Amino acid sequence: MEQNNSTNPKTLLKAISPQRVIWPILIGFVAVIYLLVKDFEPGTFDLIEFSWITLIGLFIAFLMMALRDFGYMARLRILTENEFSWRKTFRIIMLWEFTSAITPSAIGGTSFAILYLNKEGLNLGKSSAVVMATSFLDELYFIIMLPLILLVLDWQQLFLLNAENTSSLASSLLFLILGAYLLKLAYLIVLSYGLFKNPRGLKWLLLWIFKLPILRRWKQGANQAGTDIIESSKDLKNKNYIFWLKAFFATFCSWTARYWVVNSILLAFWCCKYSSLDHLMIFARQLLMWIMMLISPTPGGSGFSEWVFTKYLGDFIPEAGLSITLALIWRLISYYPYLFIGAYMLPKWIKENF
User: Fold this and answer.
1) pTM of the full predicted structure?
2) I want to staple 259 with a disulfide (CB 3.0 to 4.6 A). Which of 27, 239, 286, 345 is the partner?
3) pLDDT digits (tens, 9 = 90+) for 209-220
4) Nearest C-alpha neighbor of 98 from the set 304, 330, 340
5) What are φ and ψ of residue 214, in 5° steps?
6) CA separation, residue 289 to residues 87, 139, 224, 307 (Å)
7) DSSP secondary structure string, 77-143?
8) Domain residues of the chain, as ranges?
9) How far is CA 149 from the centre of its chain?
10) Low-confidence ranges of the chain (pLDDT < 70)
């Protein structure tokens, strides 16, 4: 039988080649240097005061990332019904995050996730089911949280509609976020229908859509996706509500902890000395930032993420140069570690499993 390209060791080795790891790092640093040169003003770093608050805030930021990874690990154990040990679960999550970090945000690491789970001992059908379930839960978190945020916060402030001299930027961000939200909602509805109601009907629809000339080249991938959904549906349909509540709670903790990293960084450098820190608003804007980052064509959103940080959280930071510096610290804590951990772990994993 011909080996599937996604399971070919050479393909995996290419995915972690030095070029793949270096590109997101270079793109991110070039973006930061450009923004610093463009907006830096003398005396910017005089605003930073290092103190015990700085150390405590940075410690909390790293703690939030640890909680985020623990939430992902707990969810994976729930979805696999404790099939994996904590050690093996940690390895899978780190490999998964590494793949996400070196691919465009819209693609993510799910294309390799099924392979990781399968090679660690799950059959292909259950591996597909677990990956589909994680995608379903992640999208559900975003779909639920945005309306809740709009109910409790000033939506004009949330979307920067009151900011001076940013009318065009605010309008662009608003349409971008709403468009991304509607796409997520549509994806969640289609995925839910396929997983829990009519998987064969969804596969038929996918194949019909991918008969279009512009999409025909991806028809084989659509066929495989449809097959994965059918296999996933068999395993997920009969799970009880306790199973889904536990899995969603782990998802909620993981994503929420990820967003509190920025709150912790702003607290660390005591930006509240210069402007009050509305932690709920900062959290809400990160939710919207993450939705916007999905359109980034760069690996892991490099470059685009730093720019969005400075534009969308800049009114909580007194100087543009300082906001760029904090954006870099944010990425150093929440993104770059996965590049290095994954680049270390994946060659050894390939050698052991192939």
Assistant:
1) 0.84
2) 286
3) 677 676 677 677
4) 340
5) -70, -20
6) 32, 15, 31, 10
7) HHHTTS-S-HHHHHHHHHHHHHHHHTSBTTTTTHHHHHHHHHHTT--HHHHHHHHHHHHHHHHHHHH
8) 5-353
9) 19
10) 1-21, 36-48, 105-111, 161-171, 206, 209, 212, 214-215, 218, 221-222, 270-276, 319-321
